[in-house]
Amino acid sequence: MSNLSIDAERLWADLLETAHIGGTPKGGICRLTLTDLDRQVRDWFKAKTAALGCAVTVDDMGTMFARRPGARSDVPPIAMGSHLDTQPTGGKFDGVLGVLGALEALRTLHEAGYETFAPIEVVNWTNEEGSRFAPAMTASGVFAGVFTREWAASRRDREGVALGEALDIIGYRGPQRCGAHPLSAFFELHIEQGPILEAEGSDIGVVTGVQGMRWYEITVTGQDAHTGATPMRLRKDALRGAARIIERVGAIAEAHAPAAVGTVGMIENKPNSRNVVPGEVFLTVDLRHPDDAVLEKMERELDATLPTICGPLGLAFAIARIWDQLAVRFDPDCIGSVRRAAALSGFSTRDMISGAGHDAAYISRVAPTAMIFVPCKGGISHNEAEFTSKEQCAAGAQVLLQAVLDFDRGLAERLSANPVRTTPERS
Ligand code: GLV
Ligand code: MN
Ligand code: MN
User: Fold this and answer.
1) What fold characterizes domain 212-325?
2) Which of 165, 199, 281, 388 to pair with 321, CA 20 to 30 A apart?
3) Looking at ligand 1, which residue's alpha carbon is closest to its atom 2?
4) Which atom of ligand 1 is nearest to the CA of 382?
């Protein structure tokens, strides 16, 4: 049944309805992971999928799985999804499109009475953004065995609340062990978050991989002092050191142009008083490159530059690499399903590597995985102005549906020739 068609209006209505949960005056969403707003959108998702007859399960990292049965209950599900948490000044599409597009695909199957071979699941992963709790993609990382659940649950936000406590507060620490949930495949629909598809006029990005990324936390320590009475030569101004580090992070990325990017996204200045020379600054660094070897070189350059900046200013510093996500290549079979799905619907495509991190990057370690990108206006994302049109969202959801069905048909052919092997449970 290749003529199944998702309902663009219904998907758009869902996007606009859920955008009210944490909606900002500028038209974006502020729905940080595991807040009460996150609970509200999770409850909405649970109600919508349960109304379609799905069994909804939650694991001990709060990830939600809504399952529609297939012909073979012994075959692990083909999953599709993304995340419903947002950045503090997030848009309406980052992550949300991947979950609601998957919901729409599932609803289309349900209404058509289409019986898939494998069960089909829609997944909402916990803490993809990494804004409240670092690092990003925490639950999918535990699911893939990259992080232990104990380590992940003990990550703290800047107020000192642990991720595990936040799960309990909103009532979303489920009984299922994270990772004890084999998948036949995973497909993630997402907005591109960059300018390429729009600039080239392509409808669909066939995502073949994700670039490598590393996160660091740096604390620069000097000495609080009076701004009026302390001569310049006696100061230990931590913010001045931080300013030089920020400039240097940009320069390191520029030295590895055009693929490298480097950002200081968070900074906390203490005591942050206008007539105190700052005694301590906390800052975060995000370095990314598609080639892990270049990323390693960028890290060495960052390490080398800190003493040369801090020494002359009389400052101490500490740096910790808190996250290292290797570059990822997606599964050729899943990529093939995305290509055929786009061709079937008459959409133009372009192969691309994702600049942003996604849950699919971790899931690719434990299940065949691929991603589908749709354009976003001006390439703007992590911004309340983020925009993808109704038609572009629908195109992505349509390709998602057809890619899942393509993979399902292939799975049915393979498994009718060979017996089912399910992934053993990991501890
Ligand atoms: C996630 O949004 C990331 O790429 O940092
Ligand atoms: Mn995202
Ligand atoms: Mn994001």
Assistant:
1) Alpha-Beta Plaits (3.30.70)
2) 165
3) 129
4) 2
